[in-house]
Amino acid sequence: MSGPGADVAEVRAWVRAARRLVVFTGAGVSAESGIPTFRDALTGLWARFDPEQLATEAAFRANPAMVWRWYAERRAAIARAQPNAAHRAIAALERGGARLAVVTQNIDGLHARAGSREVLELHGNIMRARCLEGCGDPERIDAKFDWRADPREPPPCPRCGSPLRPDVVWFGELLPQDVLARAQRAALRCDLMLVVGTSALVHPAAGLPMLAREAGARIVVVNPDRTPLDAVAAGVLRGAAGAVLPELFEKPG
Ligand code: NAD
Ligand code: ZN
Q: Which listed site, 9, 125, 160, 195, has its alpha carbon 20 to 30 Å from 28?
């Protein structure tokens, strides 16, 4: 299960010794919950689309009902899914007293559902909606009415009547700057960053491991496949997150 540089026992010792830990996750950490990665989600009815044809503001403005429906299907699948052993292991480590921040590119909310308290969602959350014209905050929209009730087309913003959109970051959009800033601070301050289930290709999120490394942290990659970060990682643990993380975080003796 281990790759170049370190084995599970050695990385376990680094986890125990870490004063501040960041667990940086991508779609792979939710794969064992049955949530398809972005490209895998474009199957069946959606097979003829590129992500760029659905996950952009231009696509939404051109065909709001179609884009809304695609997100409604993904939202329903995520609502049915459960956190897996990887999400649970991360939450348990934090509960056990580790100073740990989860920085995730995922929009599925499964880290929080598993019990993680400190979760920085870089790409938003599919379970929230916000006004297309930006008039109000998603929490208030959520509290106002059940916008999930009609999946066929975007409901109107309760405040200004513009369509609601999913509160996720689309191609070509900025990340929520306050969340990104907090993630960058966490990366700069940690001494160990576990990079779990991400191809580490989508910027600026993918820059966080290098930021941590340049600030002196060890990087450990957990992934069944090769990633561009393997070359700079102090350890590479090849395997599924749901198998590797519980083993990595288990209590001594
Ligand atoms: P990605 O699809 O580019 O890469 C997924 C990575 O996970 C790959 O490196 C793959 O080898 C690895 N992987 C697959 N199964 C795994 C497992 N069981 N355990 C550990 N690793 C596994 O995903 P990305 O890097 O997150 O970037 C894609 C973008 O799309 C991101 O913004 C992401 O948040 C978004 N997205 C999110 C979700 C979600 O919220 N669950 C799903 C799809 C896409
Ligand atoms: Zn509005």
A: 9
Q: Are residues 56 and 75 in the same domain?
A: yes
> Average pLDDT over the chain, rounded to whole?
92
- Measured in Å, residue 61 CA sits from the centre of ligand 2 at 15
| Contact 227 CB / ligand 1 (< 6 Å) | yes
Instruction: Indicate if 214 and 196 belong to the same structural domain.
Output: yes
Whether the predicted pLDDT of 1 surpasses 50? no
Q: Which of 168, 183, 198 is the last residue of a domain?
A: 168
Residue 50: CATH number of its domain: 3.30.1600.10
pLDDT in tens, 112-121: 999 999 999 9
Using only C-alpha atoms, what is the Rg of the chain?
19
Q: Is the CB of 241 under 6 A from ligand 1?
A: yes
Q: Give the Å distance between the CA of 160 and the centre of ligand 2.
A: 4
Domain count, the chain: 2
Residues 162 and 181 in one domain: no
Q: Is residue 123 among the annotated active site residues? A: yes
| pLDDT tens per residue across span 70-80 | 999 899 999 99
Question: Can you tell me the mean pLDDT for 238-252?
Answer: 92
Distance 83 CA to ligand 1 centre (A): 15
Dmax (CA) of the chain:
59
Distance of CA 161 to the CA centre of its chain: 30
Residue where a domain terminates, one of 168, 194, 223: 168
Q: What is the pLDDT of residues 52-62, one digit of tens each?
A: 888 999 999 99
CB of 209 closer than 6 A to ligand 1? Answer: no
